[in-house]
Amino acid sequence: ELTALIGQQEQRVRARPRDAGAWAVLGAAYVERGRRTADAANYPKAERALRTSLEVRGERNAEALEGLAALALARRDFQEAKEYGEQALQLTPKRWSAYPPLIDAYTGLGDYKAVGSTLDKLLKLHTDAGDRPAVMAKVSAVYRDRGWREDAAAQLTDAAAAARTPAQQAAYLAGVGQLAWERGDLQDALRHYDAALRLDPDQREAPAGRGRVLAALGRTAEAVAAYRAGLARQPSPRDAFELGELYASLGKSRQAHDQFDRMRDLALREADDGVDVELLIGRYEADHGDPLEAVDRLRDEWERQPGIEVADALGWALHRAGQEEEALDYASTATDGEKGGGVLSALYAFHRGMIEVELGMDGAARRHLQRALRINPHFSPLWAPEAKDMLRTLGDAPDEPPPS
Q: 4 is in which domain, residue-wise?
């Protein structure tokens, strides 16, 4: 249907080049195709179409502004998404579709107060039955970031049940699988990923999700096959990075380096199409390359987009570069609900715990490493075993009375 829509709109704008609405629909469709297929080459086409729509109709063009906000999100440019999203919302404050891009933009910028107020406004709007699944999915994402895992799963399960198309339902089921993975429920995660792929064999998130779960279950050959199948269909730098880390955990260094090289090639190709890949490259450099380069990249990223993901990555890069005191500041931001880091992330807790080990904070380190394994004992094929080893090294908490 998306391919057919793009074909129809391309014919329409050729026949009627002053049709601003057709240009806006075409641009939004290019964004969606790029997002679904992990092909960032669609994004320059989307930008040309959306800007043409603005030129034809002028700045009071909510459809084009929403499309530009969605494009900025696909490129991980949260500041630009915020600017376009706020302009669209001013024009159409009662249009529900103006709100989800802004929620994502505020999340990427670490503005959780704005996330909450924007979600409250969205929930007060009347939405048609066909639009409610998308609203429930956005509510689920906010709940997940607040650490409300059961509520997030309930909202997304309801969204999947109410979805109107197989592709939409598959996307929501893959999201339910991701939530199950994050809480360490392997069988539930696998069941939802499998269901998503039965509905939509091209579902983007499910193959890598299956790879994570199968690796955690010890079915590593199947895990590798799942990742490779996904990469063959939709070459994603993030998935190549995960497969490289899986190979590294298996002691297959040559295959790991091949995937890391592939990740860099794919990331640079995305960067040429306007995607911000600094977070992914920074994570790679911190663990498998040059930690000092990771710090430089991620400091710049934090200045542009101070979200929780970047706080965690920068804290870990500083730790890998031996700058532990500053590392703890960012790790605390990523894991402290008072500072916005309410998401229950095993990886973030692990990072903070390892930083605290280096600072001699054994009690705090023990708590955070235990928390990581409680959240998801299989969170990473590389780092979950290290968390367990470090807890054995730290030993049990000393049996001492509390200080008076």
A: 1-126
